[in-house]
Design brief:
The chain is of the alpha/beta class. It has a single domain, classed as Glutaredoxin (3-Layer(aba) Sandwich), CATH 3.40.30.10. It is built from four helices and five strands, in the order βαβαβαββα. The chain has a five-stranded mixed sheet with strand order 1-3-2-4-5.
Length: 110
């Protein structure tokens, strides 16, 4: 798997997330969101650190209303850990790298 964050759209969601062989961390963000900019380095770190166990994608909320609605994203930044059609874990709001690591370790299949 790639060790970098992949930017996706609603049109790519099924292929990149639902059909992925690994669990997928979906990072919902917005260009106008200050906390989203603060979290970006941690998201990049997660892709590099967990790239063998996890795929990491990011999706801008404003141009992608279908996925935002389906995954009930009410604020950004938001994280959804998804495996197939199942949401393993979800979180909204900015978190630091340590909390992101805990979130991933709790949600990822052992």
């Amino acid at each position: 798997m790639s060790n970098s964050v992949i930017t996706i759209t609603d049109a790519q969601f099924t292929t990149e997330v639902l059909d992925a062989s690994l669990p997928v961390l979906v990072y919902f963000w917005a260009s106008w969101c200050g906390p989203c900019r603060l979290m970006s380095p941690a998201i990049d770190w997660a892709a590099a650190e967990y790239g063998d166990r996890l795929k990491v994608v990011k999706m801008e909320v404003d141009p992608n209303p279908e996925s935002v609605a389906k995954y009930q994203v009410e604020g950004v930044p938001a994280l959804r850990l998804v495996k197939g059609e199942t949401v393993l874990s979800s979180l909204e709001g900015a978190i630091n790298k340590a909390k992101l690591e805990s979130f991933l370790l709790e949600g990822l299949p052992k």
